[in-house]
């Protein structure tokens, strides 16, 4: 069976987007747009457990795998998103190998981890509990986000943590952490990202990257990146609405 995890591990090119508006209709639109997945952003958007379940259902209607970026490292948030039916989890602000190992423990069932089994939506509310538990460790994707100077310093040890499937680079917070927010420093930020990508590639670890637009995806693919989250439902809405209003006024 082809899963989001199996595609990532095979280094297939995967392109998705963030969903943070909390709109099931927007999720269906994103699914119909041709993305490989959608990442529901519970870190920077007000998406609670109940809202996430509804959005995951909408993604499934659109036949689009749902990843959830959880608010932090907490085991409860990771388990809750998985119990709601997420096919993948993205954990923000991982700065060390020990933090990465703790996330693996929360994500995976024994013997690889310590995740508890329960009658959530992913198990058909308990009716398919053992079938789900048997397959979960092999079918679900765990990604951790590298987005700080400390994480860059520790990247060689982070990539060696067994149970991590993907390193995802967040350029926004990384630029703030490194003090490289000025446009004049963008080449330095690019060099840091290239270093992280190189370490991941040499370690055999799939690596992903956030981009505001697809403008430079081709160059990052050449560097070894195979997983992209591009923009978000809010960004696309704002860009489309702004362009429409501007064009209408120019044509009047």
Write the layout of secondary structure elements.
Blueprint: H1 4-9, E1 14-19, H2 24-32, E2 37-41, H3 49-61, E3 66-69, H4 75-83, E4 88-91, H5 97-107, H6 129-139, E5 141-146, H7 149-153, H8 155-158, E6 166-169, H9 171-178, H10 186-203, E7 207-211, H11 217-223, E8 227-232, H12 233-251
Parallel strand pairs: 1-2, 1-8, 2-3, 3-4, 4-5, 5-6, 6-7, 7-8
Strand content: 15-25%
**pLDDT averaged over residues:** 96
Give start-end ranges of low-pLDDT stretches: none
Radius of gyration: 18 Å
Helix content: 40-55%
CATH class descriptor = Alpha Beta
The order of strands across the largest sheet is 1-2-3-4-5-6-7-8
| Overall body shape | globular
What structural category arises from helix and sheet content?
Answer: alpha/beta
Task: Kindly report the oligomeric state of this protein.
Answer: single chain
Give me the count of strands: 8
Question: How many domains in all?
Answer: 1
**Biggest sheet, open or closed, and with what strands and sense?**
8 strands, parallel, barrel
- By DSSP (H or I, 4+ residues per run), the number of helices equals 12
Tell me the CATH topology. Answer: TIM Barrel
Q: What is the H/E order? A: HEHEHEHEHHEHHEHHEHEH
User: What is the CATH superfamily label?
Assistant: Phosphoenolpyruvate-binding domains
Compute the separation of the termini in Å: 54 Å
